[in-house]
């Protein structure tokens, strides 16, 4: 069986005795098919018994073994060493704890911060008595077309990989977080839930409009979920609920109005509709440059050809999304 000598550069830190984190190298003969978790366990068994990491199911279900491999969050039990070596064209892999959480020891992080937010946001089913039977003699019926709206988000294993990669979670203490907000959406569209679309107010309260749609959460998710999609849909529910008093919601409505009015984005009126006079003043220097270079359209725009068909298409898309 093919094997290679691999250097694992592991970030170590014991807050009880270390002033700051440091890196320690371990050489290991790795056979094809060995996972990162198996390599870590072999290092612990044969070279460094104090090495600490978290693992449980070894089946990519519990999410507890998530670490960073060469800067990218991965499930250690699922990620094969050879695949990472080939991807990065190296014989050295750097293993680090996830970001945005306090390090307990070595590769173990404290999950209290993201999980506490999950609890505060009430991301659990609150049964609707009109839908959920009061006894176990009957079942709650969820039809395929209803399940399709939230089925993907039920695959989340709470590994916190998306949370660790989220810049908004790093900069805004009040921001709900990617897997947390997408889980709010999951229950908002569950027909068995008593709160339903009212849950969009939770997303609003936890700064969901601060998501910049960088898609990092989707890129790193080991279950191929796209939390950002749930956040975008939760934003839509909040607009339907009338929660529009913020720049993000007004920006969306300005885009939508432009499409309905003319079929084109009105770049001149967009700052005004989003931030009012303040928006005009903030964007004035850029606006002047655009006008001088002929890049800005007139605020009065004629509808494009086949504008009526575009409006029908937009409205049909909105109906399908709902």
List the helices and strands and how they pair.
Layout lengths: L2 E10 L9 E10 L4 H11 L19 E4 L2 E4 L5 H8 L3 E5 L6 E3 L2 E2 L2 H9 L23 H4 L13 H5 L1 H5 L6 H11 L11 H6 L10 H5 L6 H14 L6 H15 L8 H6 L1 H16 L14 H15 L1
Family: Belongs to the succinate dehydrogenase/fumarate reductase iron-sulfur protein family.
Protein name: Fumarate reductase iron-sulfur subunit
Pfam family, one: Fer4_8
List keywords for this structure.
single chain; about 325 residues; alpha+beta; Ubiquitin-like (UB roll); 3 domains; five-stranded mixed β-sheet; two-stranded antiparallel sheet; 7 strands; globular; Fumarate reductase iron-sulfur subunit
Describe the structure.
The chain is an alpha+beta fold and 322 residues long. The protein folds into 3 domains: 3-108, Ubiquitin-like (UB roll) (Roll), CATH 3.10.20.30; 111-240, Orthogonal Bundle (Fumarate Reductase Iron-sulfur Protein, Chain B, domain 2), CATH 1.10.1060; 247-321, no CATH class. The chain has 14 helices and 7 strands. It has helices at residues 36-46, 81-88, 112-120, 144-147, 161-165, 167-171, 178-188, 200-205, 216-220, 227-240, 247-261, 270-275, 277-292, 307-321; strands spanning 3-12, 22-31, 66-69, 72-75, 92-96, 103-105, 108-109. The chain has a 5-stranded mixed beta sheet with strand order 2-1-5-3-4. A two-stranded antiparallel ribbon has the order 6-7. Helix 7 packs across helix 10. It starts with a strand and ends with a helix. The model has no long low-confidence stretch (mean pLDDT 92).
């Amino acid at each position: 069986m093919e094997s290679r000598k691999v250097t694992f550069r592991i970030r170590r830190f014991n807050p009880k005795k270390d002033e700051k984190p440091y890196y320690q190298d371990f050489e290991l003969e790795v056979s094809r098919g060995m996972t990162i978790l198996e390599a870590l366990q072999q290092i612990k068994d044969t070279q460094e018994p104090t090495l600490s990491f978290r693992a449980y199911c070894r089946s990519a279900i519990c999410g507890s073994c998530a670490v960073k491999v060469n800067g990218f969050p991965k499930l250690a039990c699922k990620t094969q060493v050879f695949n990472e070596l080939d991807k990065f064209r190296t014989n050295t892999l750097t293993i680090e704890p996830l970001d945005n959480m306090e390090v307990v020891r070595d590769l173990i992080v404290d999950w209290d911060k993201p999980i506490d937010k999950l609890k505060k946001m009430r991301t659990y089913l609150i049964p609707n008595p009109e839908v959920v039977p009061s006894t176990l003699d009957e079942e709650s019926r969820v039809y395929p077309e209803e399940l399709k709206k939230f089925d993907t988000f039920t695959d989340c294993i709470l590994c916190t990989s998306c949370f660790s990669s989220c810049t908004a979670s790093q900069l805004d203490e009040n921001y709900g977080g990617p897997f947390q907000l997408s889980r709010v959406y999951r229950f908002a569209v569950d027909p068995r839930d008593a709160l339903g679309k009212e849950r969009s107010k939770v997303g609003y309260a936890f700064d969901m409009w601060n998501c910049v749609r960088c898609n990092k959460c989707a890129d790193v998710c080991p279950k191929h979920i796209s939390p950002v999609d749930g956040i975008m849909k939760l934003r839509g529910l909040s607009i339907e609920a009338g929660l529009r008093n913020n720049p993000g919601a007004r920006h969306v409505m300005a885009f939508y109005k432009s499409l309905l009015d003319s079929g084109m984005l009105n770049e001149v009126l967009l700052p005004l509709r989003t931030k009012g006079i303040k928006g005009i003043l903030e964007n004035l220097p850029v606006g002047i440059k655009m006008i001088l270079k002929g890049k800005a359209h007139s605020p009065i725009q004629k509808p494009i050809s086949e504008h009526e068909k575009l409006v029908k298409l937009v409205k049909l898309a909105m109906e399908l999304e709902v």
